[in-house]
Amino acid sequence: MTSGFSRGKDGAVVTVFEPAEVSLLRSLVSMMLGIVSPGQTSEDPLERALGIGDSAAPSDPVLARLFPSAYQDEKEAAEFRRYTEATLRDGKRADARTVHETARAGRAELTPEEAQAWLRALNDLRLTLGTKLDVTEEVHDEVAVMSEDDPRYPAYVTYDWLTYLQDSLVRALW
């Protein structure tokens, strides 16, 4: 298993992944690319060109977690979403693609920009998996007593691994 991320030369971030870890990461970011597919845009050509989209809050719990309402007032939240969600989706897809393209077995060195994209993508992956698993603050206690035969065990271990990767990346960037 990877030892996480560490600071390299000239602001780079270094890690070493096993082939199975790269396969898992690529699978997870491929899932993310499907989840944050381009949102609905207006039929108006100018609005489409500007990325002005749908104002409806997502009904999917994962999308609601990835794109929470910016305002408590529904009208203000809808207006904000209309002007920002398409761009936010583009950013999340770009981050996921960066992970997909730069994850490799063996030693990998990330530029500071790639490391920031990884940090955002790992956060999105954790939010997605955490929402699907209904993760609470007691997750570590639950996993500690969970049987490896429990069908949920691999997903919880994956969530824990993503948390570890994110933590080590934050420390390497700090």
At a glance:
The chain is mainly α and 174 residues long. It has 7 helices and 3 strands; from the N terminus they run ββααααβααα.
Q: What structural class do you assign from the helix and strand content?
A: mainly alpha
Helical proportion, percent range? 55-70%
Mean pLDDT over all positions: 90
The largest sheet has its strands arranged as 1-2-3
Organism: Nonomuraea maheshkhaliensis
Protein name: DUF2017 domain-containing protein
Write the layout of secondary structure elements.
Elements: E1 6-7, E2 13-17, H1 19-35, H2 45-50, H3 61-66, H4 74-102, E3 106-110, H5 112-133, H6 139-145, H7 153-173
Antiparallel strand pairs: 1-2, 2-3
Q: Descriptors for this entry?
A:
mainly alpha; 174 residues
How would you describe this protein?
It contains seven helices and three strands, in the order E-E-H-H-H-H-E-H-H-H. With 174 residues, it is mainly alpha-helical. Strands 1-2-3 form a three-stranded antiparallel β-sheet. Helix 1 packs antiparallel against helix 4, helix 4 packs across helix 5 and helix 5 packs antiparallel against helix 7. The longest helix is centred in the middle third of the chain and has 29 residues.
